[in-house]
Amino acid sequence: MLKEEEKNSGPLKERNEEKTDDADSAERSWLANAALFFLELVKIAVLAGITIGVVRYFIFKPFYVEGQSMDPTFHEKEYLIIDEITYRFNEPKRGEVIVFRAPTVEKDYYLKRVIGLPGERVKVEDDKVIVYNNDNSTGVLLEEIYLENVPTPGQTTITLGPDEYFVMGDNRKASFDSRRFGPIKKADIIGRAWLRGWPVDRITLFEAPVYNF
């Protein structure tokens, strides 16, 4: 009787072993697929991190507005995206709002508007801004539509070198700018204000304004 049971148990045992082997194989296959999926996620995360890093440090930079020197164009605590790539191929234009290294405070940055370009002479007098250049040797009054007839106090005349810019804040009565610290060098310019991202109701893409000359 015992021999008969042993005889009948042989194929059953083999089938059980086959099922166990199949289960182990399926588990190993699942683990292998999970590992491959995880590796793909890691690759995607690394590539995304590199892309974000390149964009963040070499193309666009976030900037928070501090102070009221650019009122009413920019308000304190607004969030801007600064375009860092354009000036590697093109020169700053009159009217563009730029971020540059502060000439008087280490590791600080200012946000101002470009008023005078290399080779020009800028005069601030009688609450007005007059620009002299090759096309306007006798000077032309700068009309700034974004200021809505706000006067420009001060008394200064500055002739700009080949890589120098005259900058001012839009809040002319409360801006520390080229009227005080003189021109800035192109090498100190970080980039131009490209987009206001916050607050949502003031999201704006920026372009240089059109002037009267």
Automatic annotation (TrEMBL):
Keywords: Hydrolase, Membrane, Protease, Transmembrane, Transmembrane helix. It is an enzyme of class 3 (hydrolase). The active site is at S69, K112. The keyword Transcription regulation does not apply. Belongs to the peptidase S26 family. It catalyses: Cleavage of hydrophobic, N-terminal signal or leader sequences from secreted and periplasmic proteins. Residues 1-18 have a biased composition (Basic and acidic residues). The lineage of its organism: Bacteria, Candidatus Magasanikiibacteriota. GO terms for biological process: signal peptide processing. GO terms for cellular component: membrane. It is found in: Membrane. Residues 1-24 are annotated as: Disordered. The chain crosses the membrane at residues 34-59. This is Signal peptidase I.
